[in-house]
Amino acid sequence: MRRYEVPRLAFINKLDRMGSDPWKVLNQARSKLRHHSAAVQVPIGLEENFQGLIDLVQLKAYYFHGSSGEKVVAEEIPADMDAIVAEKRRELIEMVSEVDDKLAEAFLNDEPISSVDLEEAVRRATIARKFVPVFMGSAFKNKGVQPLLDGVLSCLPCPIEVSNYALDQTKNEVKVMLPGTPDGPLVALAFKLEEGRFGQLTYLRVYEGVIRKGDFIVNINTGKKIKVPRLVRMHSDEMEDIQEAHAGQIVAVFGVDCASGDTFTNGSVKYTMTSMSVPEPVMSLAVQPVSKDSGGQFSKALNRFQREDPTFHVGLDAESGQTIISGMGELHLDIYVERIRREYKVDATVGKPRVNFRETITQRAEFDYLHKKQSGGQGQYGRVCGYVEPIPPGSPIKIEFENMIVGQAIPSNFIPAIEKGFKEAANSGSLIGHPVENIRIVLTDGASHAVDSSELAFKLAAIYAFRQCYSAARPVILEPIMLVELKVPTEFQGTVAGDINKRKGVIVGNDQDGDDSIITVNVPLNNMFGYSTMLRSMTQGKGEFTMEYKEHSPVSQDVQMQLVSTHKADKAE
């Protein structure tokens, strides 16, 4: 919430449980979470004597009657609680005055502070993200839930009070401020997909403009133009048909084929709400259903998850015929396997996790290969000459093919087949069978035969030429390096840093945040398996980490030899 600058309020639950102590929780939130917070309510009784709440802003006592607390009754404050109410209200005013100048002025001049002034000050401070109002209750019997929802209305910002930014795709993803008015062009984000009774239900948040039933809208991510067949407002699982929705509202549409995170506009602007660049998956798992009968449900689940999440990929391993799922890490893939089990009732067996290595070359190498085959009838003939060289890392194109033949040594209609052959060969390098990248292939000469040359002959010549020169180009293996941010209590810093060094991590930053150390490290993904359990045991469960893909970089010589020998052993098996 800090990262995305979200204003928030807190709710302390379970006041009817034994040993409940909201003031202890409030102090922990201040010390541990660094919340600048104060209670806006005081409970009437605790544990089994919990009866209701006193609102410190309006100075009213609320009781919740009925089997599930649906009847809210407002009464005067009980006389025996006047002292604690006065003390807690003063504390609330002090806390808000520290971050709100208008209230501070009244407080310092000892002016009486009315409910309206206090409510406005709490709202201003919450929206400015300088204060967290704390509500309390017991959600099981709905005690305190209605005042919490009123608090959402009175303290949290309405859609116009929040700055939302879109990315302009015509100007290289420049940030554009959306004013959030119904008059502007339509901008809406599909943030959630659901399999409903009538097919895919897409939830849209309208950021600007108006969406109407029967309108044509454009999916910026795919460029498709679609009609809105049915527009509904959701009330939990009930739907209410509506004709139009304005900026700031959340609606659902039927029959719109899209992925999660797609942006829709009316076609006049090319804005997206989320970046269109999707990181490459860094980890793969082989999965297959336990029983043969559940194959249909299994593939249905995988198709749906791919639509929901652009970083989740499904592929087929050509050699073993297994289904391979790829994603952004161990936990990411574990969750999807669990969802297949839970939502589609399909038990799946999971193979060993596999890191997505890459291969590249480090020096220029020449190739000159003649593919000639004569077996009665039309033969095969194709000769290709040229060289391969490395491209500097970080270039947008991973494999570059250049035709520098002068004249007609190879007829131009065979050039695409040669390019296809090279790209096919680069799909699996000879070191460990992973794709080759950052390589430029230049064709300088060749020879063809009037009768025997064909597309197939040149494609095969290209594949063999690539394999012939690959080992001469000093190939190396690249492994995914992850940018890991660890947040651990300072007393465990030494242990955690020592463990990171064992995993060949490089510490790039170390900051203090209160009692916590924030350590930034670059670690090879291959050494991060099972890290979450390890970190928990090292820090008594207090440490946490986030991990995102940074880059692929060359592995050390000993790791490369080990990977190559493992690959050879697997192939021999």
TrEMBL record:
<keyword id="KW-0648">Protein biosynthesis</keyword>
<dbReference type="Pfam" id="PF00009">
    <property type="entry name" value="GTP_EFTU"/>
</dbReference>
<dbReference type="GO" id="GO:0003746">
    <property type="term" value="F:translation elongation factor activity"/>
</dbReference>
<protein>
    <submittedName>
        <fullName>Elongation factor G-2, mitochondrial isoform X2</fullName>
    </submittedName>
</protein>
<dbReference type="Pfam" id="PF03144">
    <property type="entry name" value="GTP_EFTU_D2"/>
</dbReference>
<dbReference type="InterPro" id="IPR009000">
    <property type="entry name" value="Transl_B-barrel_sf"/>
</dbReference>
<dbReference type="InterPro" id="IPR004161">
    <property type="entry name" value="EFTu-like_2"/>
</dbReference>
<dbReference type="Pfam" id="PF03764">
    <property type="entry name" value="EFG_IV"/>
</dbReference>
<dbReference type="InterPro" id="IPR009022">
    <property type="entry name" value="EFG_III"/>
</dbReference>
<feature type="domain" description="Translation elongation factor EFG/EF2">
    <location>
        <begin position="354"/>
        <end position="474"/>
    </location>
</feature>
<comment type="similarity">
    <text>Belongs to the TRAFAC class translation factor GTPase superfamily. Classic translation factor GTPase family. EF-G/EF-2 subfamily.</text>
</comment>
<dbReference type="InterPro" id="IPR020568">
    <property type="entry name" value="Ribosomal_Su5_D2-typ_SF"/>
</dbReference>
<dbReference type="InterPro" id="IPR035649">
    <property type="entry name" value="EFG_V"/>
</dbReference>
<dbReference type="Pfam" id="PF14492">
    <property type="entry name" value="EFG_III"/>
</dbReference>
<dbReference type="InterPro" id="IPR000795">
    <property type="entry name" value="T_Tr_GTP-bd_dom"/>
</dbReference>
<dbReference type="InterPro" id="IPR014721">
    <property type="entry name" value="Ribsml_uS5_D2-typ_fold_subgr"/>
</dbReference>
<dbReference type="InterPro" id="IPR027417">
    <property type="entry name" value="P-loop_NTPase"/>
</dbReference>
<feature type="domain" description="Elongation factor EFG">
    <location>
        <begin position="476"/>
        <end position="563"/>
    </location>
</feature>
<keyword id="KW-0251">Elongation factor</keyword>
<dbReference type="Pfam" id="PF00679">
    <property type="entry name" value="EFG_C"/>
</dbReference>
<dbReference type="InterPro" id="IPR035647">
    <property type="entry name" value="EFG_III/V"/>
</dbReference>
<keyword id="KW-0547">Nucleotide-binding</keyword>
<dbReference type="InterPro" id="IPR004540">
    <property type="entry name" value="Transl_elong_EFG/EF2"/>
</dbReference>
<keyword id="KW-0342">GTP-binding</keyword>
<dbReference type="InterPro" id="IPR000640">
    <property type="entry name" value="EFG_V-like"/>
</dbReference>
<dbReference type="InterPro" id="IPR047872">
    <property type="entry name" value="EFG_IV"/>
</dbReference>
<dbReference type="InterPro" id="IPR005517">
    <property type="entry name" value="Transl_elong_EFG/EF2_IV"/>
</dbReference>
<dbReference type="InterPro" id="IPR041095">
    <property type="entry name" value="EFG_II"/>
</dbReference>
